[in-house]
Write a structure and sequence with these properties.
By secondary structure, the chain is of the alpha/beta class. Helices cover about 40% and strands about 20% of the residues. The strands form four sheets. A five-stranded mixed β-sheet has the order 6-5-4-7-10, sandwiched between helices. A five-stranded mixed β-sheet has the order 13-12-11-14-15, sandwiched between helices. A three-stranded antiparallel β-sheet has the order 1-3-2.
């Protein structure tokens, strides 16, 4: 009997989460439409929507404009259900935002933090989180999302390494913040969180890979509507694939990682500039030295993009980079390389898009979407 009850509860939770995901993806949806999208019976969807309405998790959002029969009511996630918090930690800066459940940013704060981890840093992070939620009851704040650039052990919420931050190794940031604030915390690397943000922001349901090439290289993978992390949360750490045995020593300690060739900082160093903007300007002016360096980098980007396609077989590949979009011919070369080296792949099976701003475009507000996605997946709203 106990096992049967447990199975029934699990089935209900799974189906209700499916309904909630479809409501979120649709923006607003009627009960009949929800039944078609989920494959659940009209009785089940009617019951679930009513339960979600009673707890104020969803609300009515107008009626359909059909002129035949009874007009159906649209439902949407109630933005006033509660609050979510996102905090992005990157290269000595922390951005903290407060959101409603429509992911509308209500408050935003920016602060500088020491790059070396210490008790002072933890205090600053907590203070920023407390300030952004000032005047809001703790029980109304349902989830905090923390994003960092680097490696994260997702299940434990441990920062194993953070790019540009000293001594951020083995930091159990999830438990440290939860113990101080009493609010659930989820921790993720910025590229994975960006994939989640792209999913909800653009209502994406198909498989795609985000290849981010900026101050690091990483791939975020969405499969069957969910983030693929791997057994140890290291899936997509492709920046540390060695491509030159006699190459430079990488920050990971190995030699010749592809990251040592493609990073913006290394590009600027090779051409004797202090910013990627100056590199772009010189290349657009036809500087042969700069163009030669960029062509070499494009070759390696093409190689790693082709590798990603072969390993993960996405329907869409997004390449986020701050300088590629200035050179359409380089983008064409990368796309052509992929299809030339995967001869079985037709051009209608894979779309390649370029996101011009790199990390800024993909990670801004990603911590808030991470908090939202985590709350939906946990299903604590299910009674």
């Amino acid at each position: 009997m106990g096992c049967e009850v447990n199975n029934t509860s699990e089935l209900k939770a799974r189906n209700m989460k499916r309904c909630v995901r479809e409501i979120c993806l649709a923006g607003k949806i009627t009960k009949p439409q929800l039944g078609l999208q989920t494959g659940l019976t009209s009785v089940t969807t009617h019951k679930f929507v009513n339960e979600l309405s009673e707890m104020n998790f969803v609300r009515e959002a107008g009626v359909s404009n059909t002129s035949v029969g009874k007009k159906a009511i649209f439902y949407e996630i109630n933005p006033n259900y509660g609050y979510l918090v996102g905090q992005d930690i990157y290269d000595g800066e922390v951005t903290t935002c407060l959101y409603d459940f429509s992911l509308h940013c209500l408050r935003e704060r920016h602060s500088v933090i020491p790059k070396e981890y210490s008790e002072q840093v933890l205090t600053i992070l907590c203070t920023e989180l407390e300030n952004i939620t000032e005047g809001i009851p703790t029980h109304s704040i349902h989830q905090i999302g923390i994003t960092v650039s680097g490696e994260v052990s997702f299940e434990e919420g441990i920062i194993t390494n953070s790019i540009g931050m000293k001594c951020w190794r083995g930091i159990p940031i999830k438990s440290l913040l939860e113990n101080r604030l009493g609010i659930p915390v989820v921790v993720e690397n910025d590229i994975n969180a960006s994939v989640i943000a792209m999913k909800w922001r653009n209502k994406l349901t198909h498989d795609f890979v985000l290849l981010d090439i900026s101050y690091g290289i990483g791939a975020g993978i969405l499969q069957n509507g969910k983030l693929y992390r791997g057994a140890n949360s290291f899936a997509g750490e492709i920046g540390h694939i060695p491509v030159k045995q006699d190459g430079e020593i990488c920050r990971c300690g190995n030699r010749g990682c592809i990251e040592t060739i493609t990073l913006q900082n290394n590009i600027t160093k090779r051409v004797g500039e202090t910013s990627i903007d100056r590199v772009i300007s010189r290349a657009l002016e036809g500087d042969d030295k700069v163009l030669e360096v960029l062509r070499n980098v494009v070759h390696y980007i093409s190689w790693v993009a082709d590798l990603v396609v072969k390993v993960y077989d996405p329907g869409i590949l997004y390449i986020a980079n701050s300088w590629l979009a200035h050179f359409p011919n380089f983008c064409d070369e990368i796309s052509e390389y992929i299809f030339t080296h995967s001869t079985w792949l037709t051009r209608d099976q894979l779309a390649v898009y370029y996101i011009p701003e790199g990390r800024v475009a993909t990670t801004y507000h990603a911590a808030g979407y991470l908090a939202f996605d985590t709350y939906l997946e946990k299903g604590t709203y299910i009674v």
